[in-house]
Write a structure and sequence with these properties.
By secondary structure, the chain is mainly α. The chain has 8 helices and 3 strands; from the N terminus they run βααβαβααααα. The two termini are 26 Å apart.
């Protein structure tokens, strides 16, 4: 890598657009054509293991791209991370570059011990209605994010510089 390397810091949700559903990520194709070295830093990399994300995006990452995955959840119950790790030279690196277990963070007093107590609550009709409205608003926001109407990649800024800006 050098000063001309194009560095993209992103999540898969920000990289993959709705229209990428059938043929891979358009941004990856665009970056491939740039002729520059590319480093993609994926935050929340455990999301890359979802089947739809593998089919629409991960399998299209060019072999000559450098990749770095960041996650606090390096394993998934479905075992899908095993395939994702192939795209991050897992075997060549002999595992994670850095790992900081939750238990050690508590021991080091970086995190405080959590005592969880669950309490059952009953909602009256008005509170229940408000709760349902909040849930619907959250679903709507999530849908807008997934469809990239809230988060989008500014491709002009990516093409003009070495850092990707998510707006």
């Amino acid at each position: 890598m050098n000063r001309d390397t194009q560095v993209i810091i992103t999540t898969q949700q920000a990289m993959v657009l709705k229209e990428d559903s059938r043929y891979g990520c358009a941004l990856l194709k665009q970056l491939s054509k740039s002729g520059r070295e590319v480093l993609i830093v994926f935050d929340e990399a455990h999301h890359l293991g979802a089947k739809q994300t593998m089919d629409r995006f991960v399998r299209y990452i060019p072999e000559n791209f450098y990749t770095l995955g960041l996650t606090a959840t390096p394993t998934r119950r479905d075992g899908a991370m095993d395939e994702v790790y192939q795209y991050f030279d897992w075997e060549a690196s002999e595992g994670p570059i850095y790992s900081y277990p939750l238990s050690r963070a508590v021991e080091d007093e970086v995190l405080t011990r959590v005592i969880q107590k669950n309490y059952a609550v009953s909602l009256n009709d008005e509170e229940n209605k408000s709760h349902k409205q909040f849930c619907e608003q959250i679903k709507d926001i999530k849908k807008r994010i997934i469809n990239n109407s809230v988060i989008r990649v500014d491709r002009d800024k990516i093409n003009s510089g070495s850092i990707a800006y998510l707006v």
